[in-house]
Structure formats: C-alpha cells, structure tokens
C-alpha cells in the first residue's frame, strides 16, 4: 500500500511539474454530450441574454434581467443585506432545481405554486408570499423582491433572474470555479500552487477550488474549468488532463 501511495505521489508531482512548466496536457473543450445537456438551460439563458444585450447596444436600453438584478442588488446594499440576499438566491436556485428533479415530498404542491395553478383564487402576490414562506428566507429584501416581481407579473421569471444574479456575481468579483480530480488527496501547498497557476491561465482575481479523489486516474490529476453553471460547478467547457490513466491510454494508441 505504501509503495502504491508513493508512486501515486510521484506521478502527482509530475503532473504539477507539467502544469507549471507549460507542458502539454490532454486538453479538452466540451461541445456536446453530458456537459452540454446539463448546461442546456443555462446556455439558452446566455443566448437570450446575449441577444438582448446586442439589442441594448443598438437601442441604448438595459435588459429586463439586468434591470431586475440591479434593483435587487441596490435594495440589498441599502438594507445591508447583500450576504443574506446572496444566500437566499442560492436557496431559490436549489429550490427550482429540486422542483425540476422531483426531489421534494410535496412536489405537486410546489409545482402548482410555481406554475400559478395552486388556486384560482390565489393572486400572483399571494403565490409569491407562499413560496417565500416555504423557502425560509434569511433576508427581508428577497420576500419584498418576490412581491415586486409578482406585481409586475414577472414572478415566473424568478428562476432565470436567480441564475443571472449568480452568474453576474461571479463575473463582477472575477471568481473562477475550478474542479480538480486527483488520484489522491492534494496537500494544502499543492492546492495553493494549482490556484495560483489557474489564476494566470484564466486571468481570475480568485479561484474557487473544489477537489475530489478518484483512484481510477492511477496518478496525477485532471482540472476542469469555464463552467456553464459557475455556482453549482456544472458543465465544464475546458479541461487539462495530467492523469497517468490518460498518459497510458495515449501511449497505447
């Protein structure tokens, strides 16, 4: 067991050496398959946002997504609730994800509320208040924002606004999520080294590093980044593969 661990550590060190020396890894750009499927909805949102932004440049207008997001950001800042609002937005995104994946015990009730079919007597404002109560908001701003959207007949766009909010937050703070899968656990020093290198590669101010262990890699590691969903770290569009498994596969061809 000790010999296997030592060998894996050597290969991991070789992978880090290649990363810092600029050695050529197996580089991947995801344009189809599971990554594209998992990010399909967000790709549609990005395409819609891009189309609206192109129109803005011509007409000098702001998209509804930006307008509502800025209204929420400004209200949170004025109340001193920027952090609680961000946490609540994460709850909103998780809520909608659970709805889509049928992960709630009372899914039909939630779906009816989301789709405006809970009761013919329930107004959009009532629906917004009920959903806010079910989610358990930490801030006072977001329940008010729910009511605001409901009055504007825009409550059905809440999920898209939440997605856009988090995407813009990462852009504004210039944070790039990076996922590293290695054959064995990374040391703190190795984690910092990878973060510093990925800052240079991506131009990010900070790296949100998520790590996992997969012994099937045999040695070394794999880096994934440029995610379609930065907050949930899903749909990587680029990868750098320094794993021993890939090296051996390439050598066998």
What is the element layout, followed by pairings?
Blueprint: H1 2-21, E1 26-29, H2 33-38, H3 40-59, H4 64-79, H5 82-100, H6 107-114, H7 124-135, H8 141-151, H9 158-173, E2 175-182, H10 188-202, E3 206-213, E4 221-229, E5 234-241, H11 244-252
Parallel strand pairs: 2-3
Antiparallel strand pairs: 1-5, 2-4, 4-5
Helix pairs in contact: 4-5, 4-8, 4-9, 5-9, 7-8
Overview of the molecule:
This protein is an alpha+beta fold. It has 11 helices and 5 strands. The protein has helices at 2-21, 33-38, 40-59, 64-79, 82-100, 107-114, 124-135, 141-151, 158-173, 188-202, 244-252; strands spanning 26-29, 175-182, 206-213, 221-229, 234-241. It has a 5-stranded mixed sheet with strand order 1-5-4-2-3, with helices on both faces. α4 runs antiparallel to α8 (141-151), α4 (64-79) packs across α9 (158-173) and α5 packs across α9. The longest helix is centred in the N-terminal third of the chain and has 20 residues, at 2-21. The radius of gyration is 22 Å and the shape is elongated. The relative contact order is 0.16. Residues 31-39 and 47-60 have low confidence and may be disordered.
Q: What keywords describe this structure?
A:
5-stranded mixed β-sheet; alpha+beta; 253 residues; 60% helix; 15% strand; 11 helices
Quick description:
The chain has eleven helices and five strands; from the N terminus they run αβααααααααβαβββα. The protein has 253 residues and is of the alpha+beta class.
Structural class, by secondary structure, is alpha+beta
Count every beta strand, where a strand is a DSSP E run of 2 or more residues: 5
Beta-strand fraction estimate? 5-15%
- The helix-strand sequence is HEHHHHHHHHEHEEEH
Largest pleated sheet: 5 strands, mixed
Alpha plus pi helix count: 11
Distance between the termini: 30 Å
């Amino acid at each position: 067991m000790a010999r296997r661990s030592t060998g894996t550590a050597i290969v991991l060190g070789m992978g880090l050496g290649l990363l810092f020396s600029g050695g050529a890894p197996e580089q991947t750009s995801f344009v189809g398959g599971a990554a594209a499927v998992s990010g399909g909805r967000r790709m549609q949102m990005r395409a819609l946002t891009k189309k609206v932004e192109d129109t803005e440049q011509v007409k000098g207008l702001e998209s509804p997504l930006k307008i509502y997001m800025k209204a929420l950001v400004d209200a949170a800042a004025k109340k001193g609730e920027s952090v609680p609002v961000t946490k609540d937005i994460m709850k909103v995104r998780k809520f909608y994800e659970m709805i889509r994946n049928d992960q709630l015990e009372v899914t039909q009730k939630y779906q009816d509320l989301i789709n405006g079919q809970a009761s013919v007597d329930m107004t959009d404002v009532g629906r917004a208040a009920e959903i806010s109560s079910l989610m358990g908001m930490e801030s006072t701003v977001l329940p008010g924002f729910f009511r605001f959207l409901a009055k504007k007949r825009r409550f059905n766009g809440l999920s898209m606004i939440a997605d856009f909010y988090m995407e813009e937050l990462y852009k504004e703070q210039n944070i790039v999520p990076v996922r590293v899968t290695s054959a064995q656990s990374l040391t703190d020093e190795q984690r910092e080294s990878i973060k510093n290198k990925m800052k240079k590669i991506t131009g990010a101010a900070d790296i949100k590093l998520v790590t996992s262990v997969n012994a099937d890699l045999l040695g070394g590691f794999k880096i994934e980044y440029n995610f379609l969903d930065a907050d949930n770290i899903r749909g990587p569009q680029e990868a750098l593969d320094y794993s021993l498994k890939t090296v051996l596969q390439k050598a066998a061809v």
